[in-house]
Write a structure and sequence with these properties.
The protein has 2 domains: 126 residues, HAD superfamily/HAD-like (Rossmann fold, 3-Layer(aba) Sandwich), CATH 3.40.50; 65 residues, no CATH class. It has 10 helices and 5 strands, in the order E-H-H-H-H-H-H-E-H-E-H-E-H-E-H. It starts with 6 loop residues before the first strand and ends in a 14-residue tail after the last helix.
């Protein structure tokens, strides 16, 4: 029998928040862009890929990214990152599951490909430093998912081996390098499935199943 894992590493955007794609599609509609314009420009062209990777590594500021990405898209650059993700909201069930895991003694970390802190901060209001045992943001380390080094950094912060940990991400391409290091992996597609998979891998309940429980 495989022992239950005692560490949990969570991506941020799309795992602890609502999905990224609907937010991006809503942005396109607001800006009058054809559906798919954003994905194509930023993730399927050499210049867009370079800009995003440099941003995530911390070698390009968000303000400079806004300017360059605005040029690629043919739209105003002002607070572009904030406009793209204006519809993102916290994902309460996964946040609650992470808190329940931590209360049960699981060490919980955030591992995020970051997008710079200004002029718009993706993490504002989420109190990451107080709620999690480790927070690893790509811009602080000059490396990004799916590169193995960033997974090693988070393991070092947790004081655990990959074989001790579960890694959750909404981007499927980030899972294989983690699995190669020894992580159990969960592809976050929808919250209920993510939480159920974590309960199985961690061996603990992460939701309140008592419908009669009264909370204040």
């Amino acid at each position: 029998m495989t022992p239950h894992r005692k560490g949990l590493v969570l991506d941020f955007g799309g795992v602890l928040t609502t999905p990224l794609l609907p937010a991006a599609l809503a942005f396109e509609r607001r800006e009058g862009l054809a559906e798919g314009t954003l994905l194509t420009a930023l993730h399927l062209t050499p210049e867009g890929i370079r800009l995003t990777e440099d941003l995530e590594r911390g070698t390009l500021t968000q303000a400079r990214w806004n300017e360059s990405a605005g040029e690629l898209l043919g739209i105003a650059p002002d607070n572009l990152m904030g406009r793209i993700f204006a519809d993102l909201r916290p994902q309460p069930s996964v946040i609650a599951a992470a808190a329940a895991a931590r209360r049960a003694g699981v060490r919980v970390a955030i591992l995020s490909n970051s997008v710079g802190p200004a002029p718009w901060n993706l993490y504002d209001g989420h109190e990451l430093e107080g709620r999690y045992d480790a927070v690893v943001l790509s811009e602080d380390h000059g490396t990004r998912k799916p590169e193995p080094e960033i997974f090693r950094i988070v393991l070092d912060r947790l004081g655990l081996s990959a074989e001790d940990c579960v890694f959750v991400d909404d981007t499927e391409q980030h899972l294989r390098p983690a699995a190669d290091l020894g992580f159990a992996t969960v592809h976050a597609v929808e919250p209920a499935g993510t939480v159920a998979a974590l309960e199985a891998l961690l061996g603990i309940p992460l939701t309140d199943r008592d419908p009669h429980r009264v909370t204040s």
